[in-house]
Prior knowledge:
Domain HTH gntR-type (chains A, B): 1-67
Distance between the termini of chain A: 26 Å
Protein name (chains A, B): FadR/GntR family transcriptional regulator
Keywords (chains A, B): DNA-binding, Transcription, Transcription regulation
Largest sheet of chain A: 3 strands, antiparallel
Oligomer: homodimer
InterPro entries (chains A, B): GntR_C, TF_FadR/GntR_C, Tscrpt_reg_HTH_GntR, WH-like_DNA-bd_sf, WH_DNA-bd_sf
Structural class of chain A: mainly alpha
Mean pLDDT of chain A: 90
Amino acid sequence: MRHEQVLDALGAQIANGALAPGTVLRSEELQERFGASRTVAREVVRVLETMQLTSSKRRVGVIVREPSAWNHYDPRLIRWQLDGPARPAALATLNELRSAIEPCAARFAALRATPEERGRLGALGERLARTARARDLSTFLEFDIAFHDLLLSASRNPMFAQLSEVVAEVLTGRTGHGLMPPEPQPEAVALHLEVAAAVADGDPDRAERAMRDIVVQAREEIAALVADGGAEGE
Amino acid sequence: MRHEQVLDALGAQIANGALAPGTVLRSEELQERFGASRTVAREVVRVLETMQLTSSKRRVGVIVREPSAWNHYDPRLIRWQLDGPARPAALATLNELRSAIEPCAARFAALRATPEERGRLGALGERLARTARARDLSTFLEFDIAFHDLLLSASRNPMFAQLSEVVAEVLTGRTGHGLMPPEPQPEAVALHLEVAAAVADGDPDRAERAMRDIVVQAREEIAALVADGGAEGE
DNA sequence: CAAACTCAAAAGTACTACTTATTCAAGATG
DNA sequence: CATCTTGAATAAGTAGTACTTTTGAGTTTG
């Protein structure tokens, strides 16, 4: 508990650049700053070290590393960045990642999904279409996330599957900012149905192409969002 | 030092399935097993916990989590898997990841690379072609890695850039297994030149397409490697 | 038989003592 | 005067002990 508090506090400061790279923290100083014991301070530093956010050198202290050294795939770091002032930029980065992965994931899902998964994907597509027609945005988002989540795990690649949280975050972030069109775009819905159909048919090329169309569309949306929404912070 | 030894030992055991999911380890037991102090044992467990390899519950112990919960992007976990019996499968997974990312990275590189980067990419392409003609496989690999590394960092997406180690590993693994053709394929070399040219011209579509051709080719190679090389273990 | 209560086991936290590596500087040596 | 060596100070690393908190499991009681 104590551990997590301190980790979040210190990690967020580093992730948001409040502690610039090169900054040296002495472990004793950390204990005072957070009113934590040596044990807690040390374990927090160990964790930050494994995330490559810091490096420790004897007789020197804990050194904040360059962002390029960080493990940007660590869920904690992603969280800290999304909750900080750089949220729009972080969302853009994550969206680019997803736009790269998902078409490929769709391809593998078409090749490897179980019959049951293919069925569920189709069902989710149908529900997606229905909630879109009903202009029920929040339910739409829910099914949208479920759709992408299922697709990623059906790809049978653990590294793809792990990105479902990222995708959920990107999709939510888009809706949350109120910058999404008042109702889901019919083309996007049609493309989701196309992906589901292609996966059901076991047609990797078609699945990949349809998914690519989806993410390209999303990429353009988010790019616009960052362009004029970058200053709003939270 | 001590810390890292124990972490590697225990982490590798978990990563390779020697300690099945659900296994419960008591921290005192760990101290004995590795002859480590309480401090070291605790910090190791903390780190494994942040990697989502384990979860700790009071009055129970340290529980090994399901592979699906692991943070598969952690460089340490990747290392443990590559060094273990599941190396071929791990290489296949990583190669799929790279095959998803690199075409997209090429696109962004074409849009965002600095003039200097565009120049260096072209130069690397040339050197690649030369070493290919000279049948100098090890130098070829070196330039190949440098080429992909530069492209990824030129994409200006930290999450893409971070995968350069993964790409290097995949490329090396392919050559290392001696399953690569005795000389680099002319088509592959031509495609690298095409990527460099497209990036130089700032043509994202062309860059993406050429890179996609490269990774698709690699994907097929590795799939074959896994099919008949899966049993050779280390 | 179910619900609450008690007890003990194991992780979490705190603190102290000791070890080791590294930087910085003073002094010796060429 | 420069360079190399040596040594002391410092801060992180490691070890070990003591105490706290949570919670699973067994037991008692209505």
